[in-house]
């Protein structure tokens, strides 16, 4: 096993030129320094010093090991420095969100995280639910905020909110907009989110539980594309009521009420249980406080 004491001995021999001087620097004996080097050579599997040369001259592999050892010693010093540090060192947060979050509370979340952790390095990713989930499981992301479409003992889930969705379309496409059954709705072209999107998967399962299929169906994983198609009158889509209320007020969209109404979509913050930390728990709690799906681009 390679230890920091062995690497420390190697470093000071290289700096001071002899085992004797390294021993004096480390307040130990020359025999103790020699023992550390022998143990380090045994653990690494190659000689560190060229015994054919006078003085303590490193071999080529010895130089490579020294460079790596200096990184480890440097990390040790940084850890020890935390005790007296006035500011926390920079840390990285790799997080993923879906389109709806990016369109609503993401700006305020980023601003708040930067205020609380001035040294933080943020790596945001926007994508479909299944893609973000795969990246979380592969340890490519630390935390994601997505529609809650699965449960997993290996994933910690923190409920954020529920998003109310309603059927919307261009004015004039549907003559009777009050109290349509799902069977009556199915006579029209239906615009749905694709199977990789959490909301699409959530409603696909709900439609199936209601025994409903839509013969005229167009799918897209892009929320903005579905919105544009609905405004254009291509079909009827389920969309978050509060977020797109301005388009209703402007007369570009109308709400179609149905029996039964669409259930709300639950959203959660998720992170791997084996990567759980106080920091990620605080970030998830911050998302709970900040998440607001009622308005666009909240600052």
TrEMBL record:
Entry superkingdom: Bacteria
One Gene Ontology molecular-function label: transcription cis-regulatory region binding
User: Pfam families per the record?
Assistant: HTH_1 (PF00126), LysR_substrate (PF03466)
Q: Which InterPro entries match?
A: LysR_HTH_N (IPR000847), LysR_subst-bd (IPR005119), WH-like_DNA-bd_sf (IPR036388), WH_DNA-bd_sf (IPR036390)
Question: What residue stretches are annotated with the HTH lysR-type domain?
Answer: 2-59
Keywords recorded for this protein, A-Z: DNA-binding, Transcription, Transcription regulation
Q: Which SUPFAM superfamilies match?
A: Periplasmic binding protein-like II (SSF53850), Winged helix' DNA-binding domain (SSF46785)
Q: What PROSITE patterns does UniProt report for this protein, alphabetically?
A: HTH_LYSR
Q: Does the keyword Acyltransferase apply?
A: no
PANTHER family (UniProt xref): HTH-TYPE TRANSCRIPTIONAL REGULATOR, TRANSCRIPTIONAL REGULATORY PROTEIN
**Which family does the similarity line name?**
Belongs to the LysR transcriptional regulatory family.
Give the protein's recorded name: LysR family transcriptional regulator
């Amino acid at each position: 096993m390679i230890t920091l004491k062995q690497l420390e001995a190697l470093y000071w021999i290289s700096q001071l030129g002899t085992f004797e001087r390294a021993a004096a620097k480390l307040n130990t004996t020359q025999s103790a320094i020699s023992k550390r080097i022998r143990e380090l050579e045994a653990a690494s599997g190659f000689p560190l010093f060229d015994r054919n040369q006078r003085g303590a001259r490193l071999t080529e592999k010895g130089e490579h090991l020294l460079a790596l050892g200096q990184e480890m010693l440097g990390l040790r010093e940084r850890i020890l420095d935390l005790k007296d540090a006035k500011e926390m060192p920079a840390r990285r947060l790799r997080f993923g969100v879906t389109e709806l979050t990016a369109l609503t509370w993401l700006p305020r979340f980023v601003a708040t995280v930067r205020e609380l952790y001035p040294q933080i390095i943020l790596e945001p990713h926007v994508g479909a639910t299944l893609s973000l989930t795969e990246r979380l499981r592969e340890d490519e992301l630390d935390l994601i905020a997505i529609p809650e479409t699965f449960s997993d003992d290996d994933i910690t889930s923190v409920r954020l909110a529920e998003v109310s969705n309603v059927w919307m379309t261009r004015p004039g496409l549907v003559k009777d907009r009050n109290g349509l059954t799902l069977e009556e709705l199915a006579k029209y072209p239906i615009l749905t989110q694709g199977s990789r999107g959490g909301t699409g998967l959530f409603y696909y399962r709900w439609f199936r539980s209601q025994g409903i299929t839509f013969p005229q169906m167009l799918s897209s994983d892009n929320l903005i594309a579905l919105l544009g198609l609905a405004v254009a009158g291509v079909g009827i889509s389920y969309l978050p009521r509060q977020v797109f209320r301005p388009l209703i007020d402007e007369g570009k969209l109308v709400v179609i009420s149905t029996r039964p109404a669409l259930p709300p979509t639950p959203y959660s913050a998720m992170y791997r249980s084996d990567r759980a930390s106080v920091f990620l728990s605080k970030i998830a709690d911050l998302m709970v406080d900040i998440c607001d799906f009622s308005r666009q681009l909240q600052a």
